[in-house]
Amino acid sequence: MSKLATWARLKSPWVLHFNSGACNGCDIELVALLTPKYDVERFGIKLEPSPRHADVLLVTGSVTQQCAERLKRIYDQMPEPKFVVAIGACACSGGIFRGNYDVLGGVDKVIPVNAYIPGCPPKPEAIIDGVVKLLNSLKPEKPSKEEKKK
Amino acid sequence: MAKKNGKKSKSSVRPMVRALLSNLFKKPATCQYPFVKAEVPEGFRGRQVYNIDLCISCGLCSRDCPAKAIEMIEVDGKRRPLFHLDQCIFCYQCAESCPRNAIMSSKFFELATTDKSSLVVKPEEKVQKGNGEQQ
Amino acid sequence: MVLDVMFVFRVLVFPGFTFLFFFTMFCDWIERKIEARMQNRMGPTFTGPAGILQPFADVVKLLTKEDIVPRGAKKTVFRLAPILSFSIIIFALSFLPIDGAAVIPNSSFSGDLIFIMALITLANFFLFLSGWASANPYGDIGAARVLTQFLGYDIPLFLLALAPAFLAGSLTISAIAANQYLPFILLAPWAFVLFIITLQAELEKDPFDIPHAESEVVGGLETEFCGGKLAFLRLTRDTQIVFGAALVVELFLGGPYGPVFFGPAAPWYFLWFVLKLLAVVVITEYVTCLFARLRIDQVLTTNWKVLLPLSVLSLTLTIAVATWIYPMVT
Amino acid sequence: MSPKKIDMLSILQAKFKGTSVQVQPEQLGKAAIIADASTNRDVLKAMLEADEKTAVIAITGIDLGATLGVFYHIRTSKAGIITIKVEVPKEKPQIKTISDLMPGTAFDEMEVTDLVGVVFEGHPSPGRLVLPDNWPDDVFPLRKDAKLDNLQYKQTPPNETEPAGNENIVKIIVGPQHPALLEPEKFALKVEGEIVKDVQPRIGYVHRGVEKAAESRTYLQDVYLVERICGICNACHATCFVEAVEKILETEVPLRAKYIRTVLLELNRLHSHFLTLGHAGLEIGFETLFQYFWRDREPIMDITEIISGNRVISSGMTVGGVRRDINEADIPKIKGMLTTLRKTLPFYKKVYEDEPSIRMRMKDVGTLKREDALKLCIVGPTARGSGVDIDVRKDEPYEAYGEIPFKMITYNEGDTWARMNVRMDEVEESINIIEYALDNLPTGPFRVRVPRVVPAGEAVNRVEAPRGELFYYLKSNGTAYPERVKVRTPTFANIPAFLATAIGSNIADVPPNFVSLDPCFSCTDR
After folding, report:
1. How many domains does chain D have?
2. Is a pLDDT exceeding 50 seen at residue A145?
C-alpha cells in the first residue's frame, strides 16, 4: 500500500508559491513554468491557492524581517509530508542583499529547506531540474525495502 | 449526433473562438525539457569554470564581486578564490576584472542540489571544463 | 432475503459505484487534456499512459495526506459535509439509465426528474455547509457565493429540464430517454443551448466560476480542507460535471439509445451513452476556455434578467412544438 | 494644454526676489532652489499656479552631517527637474507636510519619516511604510551614525484584530500570501455588502534596504545591486543609475552603446507589457489569454538571452557603455523572432478591444479622471490611460530615443480597459523601435574606460520604465563609494491611483483595477 502512496505522492506534487521579499525575477520564471513552453502540468504539478492543499512550498526571495513570521505560519499550515524548495540565489543565501539590515538572508534560517536552486534567476529548466531532483531524492525509499527483504 | 454548437448571435467569428479550435489540433508548444536537452545560446552565463594555472591569486575577483560570493582561501601556500554558488548572482564581474581571464563562463545551468555544501566550489576541485556535463 | 448477486454487482461494480468512480476520473483527465491542448500545452502526460492516471494519483495522494481540522471549525459538519455531498451526487447518478436500464434496476418511479433536481439542490447545500463550517473568512465568502449563484440558476435549470419532459410527455427520466423518436436537441435546440449555459453556472465553470475564483476568494469553500476531505470535495465537483453531462445526454441527446449493430443491446447502449457524454464534456470545456469570469452581480443579473425569461419563453415554444408534433407521432 | 512657453525660472526669480529663497539655475538638473522650512510651501504653491502639469516626483531625505536635508524634486511641463532644497536641524527634525497641496506625496513623506527621521506635521496617515512594525523607534537606517548590526526588535502582536467600526462592515485582508498577487503586500479592505468602503495598504514586505546597501559598494558593484531592485524592469534601473554617474563624470557614451542600451530597454518594456497583459487575463479568470500571452512572450526572453546571456536580468549596462556587443550574426535571428511576434499582435489587439467578456470586466472599472491623475502625480501607462501625455522618452529624450521615431500612445477613457490598450499599442511601438535600432546600429566602440573614483557632485536622472517614470538622485563624495542613492519607482507614485479608484467600487472590481496598475512591489519597497 505504501508503494502506491509513494507513487501517488511523486506523481502529483501540488505546489504553493510564496515570495518572501524577492525582486520577482524568480517569480516570473516560476510562473513561466505553467505556460505552454515549459508546462509543468506534464508532471502533475499544479499551482494551488491555499497552503492546506500544497505539498511543495516554493519560496523565492531573501526573507525580509516582515515576511519571516508569515513564512513560518504558512509552513506550519501545510499538512505533512511537506517539502520546501528555495529558488534563486536570494532564497538560498540572501544573494546580493545578504547583510542588509532588514534581510535575514536565506530561507533555511526560518524553515528547513529540502532543495536549493541557485541562479539569479535560475532558468525555468533549472527549476524543473530542481523539482525533479527533489522528487528523485524521495524515491530511494524503495531500495530501502529491498534491504529489509535481504 | 452533430456536435451542436448553437451560440447566440455573434457577428464575425470572434478571434478567440477560432484560436481555441485551431490550437486543439495543433502540436503543443511545449519543449520536453528533462528528456530533450535545452538548447542554450552562446555567451549564456552558467556556472563559472575556474582555471587554476592562469590564476595569479591577485584577489581582484573577490574584491569586485557585488554579492561578496568569492572568498580567498589558502591552497598549498597560495590564495585561491572559493566560489559560493548559493550566493553568486552569475553576473560575471569577476571574469571581467580578472587580469588573466582565469574565470570563464559555461553553459551549464543545472545546479540544483538537495544539500547545500555541494554548492561551495573549492578551487583545487577539478571542475569539468566545457559545458553541459553533470558534476 | 437471498442477496441477488446480479443486483449487488450491478450497483457496486459495473454501472454502479466503481464504474462511476473511475469514469469520473476519466472525464476529469479528458477535461484537463482538452483544456491543455486548447491552451497549446501538453497537460498531464507522465502518470500512466498519456497521463490517464493523473486524477487517480491526485485522489490517492490526497487520501494519504495528513488530515487537519482547524480549531475554530465546527467539527462534525466539517468532517461530514464533503462525504455527504459526494454520496448524494453518486446516488443521483444511479437513477440515470446508463446501459438501457437504470443502475438500480426498476428503481425509476414516475417523477424522478423532480427528485433528481432536488438532489442537486441538496448536494449544493452540503457544499455550502462545508464552506460555512471551515472557520476561514474566505470559506464563508466562497460558501455565500455558492448560494447566491445557486439561487440564480436553479429555477431556469428546472424550467429548461421541463422542455424535454413536455415533448416526451412524462416526468420519468427513463421514459423521456426511451421515447425520443427524434433527439430533442433537434426539436428544441434553444432549450439545449440555454441548458448548456445554465449547466455552466451549476458546475461553476468559467463564465460563472465565482465560488472558487482564485484571484478574489483564495480557495473558496475548499480553502481550509486538506487530505481526505479535500479529495471528496474535488470528487464532488468532478462527479457533478459527469452528472450534468449525463443529464444533458438523457434529456436532449436520446439517452443511451442508438443504432445497435449486432449482439446484445446493452453494451452498444453503454457505448453510445459514453460517447455522447464525452461530447457534452468537450462542449462545456470549450465554453469554459472561451470566456472570462463574470462579476457576481453580473451573474445575478444574467440569471434573473436573461436566463429566467428565456427559459420561460423556451418552455412556451416547446409546448407549441409539442402540440404540433405530438398528434403526428402518436 | 498650455501651449504658451512657461519659463518657470523667471517666474520664480521674479516672485522670490527679496526673500531668503535663492534660485540657482543649471544646478542639479534644471535648477535648485534653496529654501527653508517656512518658505518651501510658498515656492510649491507658486509653481502650481504657474503650470498645471507640475508634479512632485520624489522627496529625498539625506543626512548632511549636522543637519537633515529634505529635497523636493519637481517636474513641470517643460523638460528638466527643479529641486527645492530644505535643511532641517537634527535635534528638532520637523517640517510642514505638503500632502494637502499634492495628495500624491503622502507616501513619500511616510518613507522619509521611516528612513531618515524627519517628522511631517499634519500628515494625514503617519505610520510605518517600508520598515516592519516592530522596528525600534530610535534607529533610522539611512543616517550615517545608525547602529544596524544587533537590533532589538520590539515584539508587537500584529494588529489585525482591531474592530472594523459598525457591525455590517466586513474587514477582508488581502494578505501577503495570495495566489493572485505575485508579491507580498497587504491590503486591509473594509467592505460593506459588495462595496469597498476603505483600503489601507501595508507595504514594506519586500523592503531589502537597497539604498543603504548601495552606500557600501563601489559604483561598479552598485549597477548589479540596483538592477536587482525589480526583476521585470531591471534594465531601466541600471540605465538610470549609470546615466546619473555619467552625468557627474561628464563622460560621453559612444553612440553604439546608446543604441544597444535602447534595444535592451525596449526588450525590457516588451517582456514587461506581455507579462502584464497576460496577468490581467489571469486576474479576470481568462486563463487561456494568460497562457497565449506568456507563450508568445518566450521569444522575447530568448532574444534577451542571446544578447545578454540571461533571460531576465540582462546586466548589459555598465558605467561608460555596455558590457557586451551585439554580434552581427545574431541580428537576422532576432529580426526573425520579432516578425513572428508582430504577426500575433492583431489577434491580441482584436481580443482586447472587442472580446465581450473582457469588456464586461474591464470597461469603466477603476476610472481615473485626468485632473485626479494630475493631482495624484500618476505616471506611466496608468496616467496615459487617463489622457495625461507624459512620457520621459518624449519629454526628455535620453539614450538614442531622440533619433528613433515613435508615437506616444494616450487614451482618454481612463478605465482599466484604456490602460490595458495603452500597453497593447506600446508593444507595437517597442517592436518598431527595436527594429529601427537594429537596422541602423552605428559602428564604433561600445564602451569607454571610466575611473573608479567619482568626483564629488550631485545628479538627477529620469528614465521611462514599463510602469512609468523612474527617478534617481545620486550624490557622490569624491570616493569610490556613493554618498546617497535615492530611487523613486513608478509604482510608488501609482499606488494612490489604486486607492482613489478602489474606494466605492465593487469588491469584484478590485483585482482588474489592481492589475491594470501593473504594480511591482519589489520596486515600491526597494
Report:
1. 2
2. no
Give yes or no for residue C271 having a pLDDT over 60. Answer: yes
- For residue B35, what pLDDT is reported? 81
Angle at C136 between CA C135 and CA C138, to 5 degrees: 145
> Given CB atoms, is C180 within the 8 Å cutoff of chain A?
no
Domain span at residue B98?
Answer: 48-121
Residue C246 near residue C93, CB atoms below 8 Å: yes
Residues D298 and D446 both lie in one domain = yes
Give the chain B residue nearest C253 (alpha carbons).
Answer: B1
Q: List Cβ neighbours of C11 (8 Å cut-off, separation of 6 or more).
A: C17, C94, C103, C104
Q: Return d(Cα C189, Cα C192) in angstroms, integer.
A: 5
| Domain definitions of chain C by residue range | 69-329
> Which chains border A (3 or more CB–CB pairs < 8 Å)?
B, C, D
| pLDDT level of residue B127 (50, 70, 90 thresholds) | very low
The set of residues, in sequence order, having a beta carbon less than 8 Å from that of D230 and lying 6+ positions away, is A23, A24, D237, D489, D520, D522, D523
C65 at the A interface (CB within 8 A)?
Answer: yes
For B87, the closest of A37, A93, A123 (CB atoms) is: A93
- Asked, for residue B2, whether it belongs to a domain, the answer is no
Residues D302, D314 contacting (CB under 8 angstroms): no
Mean pLDDT of the residues in chain C: 84
Residue C30 near chain B (CB below 8 Å) = no
Does D239 lie in the same domain as D111? no
Q: CATH number, domain at B66?
A: 3.30.70.3270
Q: Does B88 touch chain A (CB under 8 A)?
A: yes
Distance from CA of A50 to the nearest CA of B (A): 25
Q: Label residue D266 by pLDDT band (50, 70, 90).
A: very high
Place of cell 428544441: C188
Q: Tell me the pairing of strands B120-121 and A56-60.
A: unpaired
On whether the CB atoms of residues D193 and D167 are closer than 8 A, the answer is no
Structure confidence at residue D433 (pLDDT) = 93
Binary contact (B111, A92; C-beta < 8 A):
no
Cell of A133: 531532483
Region for residue D259 given its phi and psi (left: phi exceeds 0; alpha: psi -120 to 50; beta: otherwise): alpha
CATH code of the domain containing D259: 1.10.645.10
Question: Is residue D151 one of the residues assigned to a domain?
Answer: no
Structural fold of domain A2-149? Rossmann fold (3.40.50)
Residue D241 in this model has a pLDDT that exceeds 90: yes
- For residues C59 and C259, the model is more confident at C59
Q: Cα separation of C145 and C222, whole Å?
A: 13
Render chain B in DSSP notation, one character per residue. Answer: -------S--SSPPHHHHHHHHHHHSPP----TTTSPPP--TT---SEEE-TTT-----HHHHH-TT--EEEEEETTEEEEEEETTT-----HHHHH-TT--EEE-S-----BSSGGGGEE-TTS----SSS---
Q: To 5 degrees, how large is the angle CA D81–CA D85–CA D90?
A: 145
pLDDT over 70 (residue B17): yes
Mutation site for B-interface testing, chosen from A58, A83, A92, A107 by largest number of B Cβ within 10 Å: A92
pLDDT at D3: 41
Q: Do D221 and B93 touch (CB under 8 A)?
A: yes
Whether B29 sits inside 8 A of C40 (CB atoms) is: yes
C230 CB within 8 Å of a chain A CB: yes
Q: Please give the Cα distance from B95 to C246 (Å, whole number).
A: 66
Per-domain boundaries in chain A: 2-149
pLDDT band at D165 (very low <50, low <70, confident <90, very high): low
**How large is the C-alpha radius of gyration of chain D?**
23
- How distant is the Cα of B9 from the closest Cα of chain A, in angstroms? 32
pTM of the model: 0.90
Count of the separate structural domains present in chain B: 1
Cα D219 to Cα A88, B112, D214, distances in angstroms: 24, 32, 8
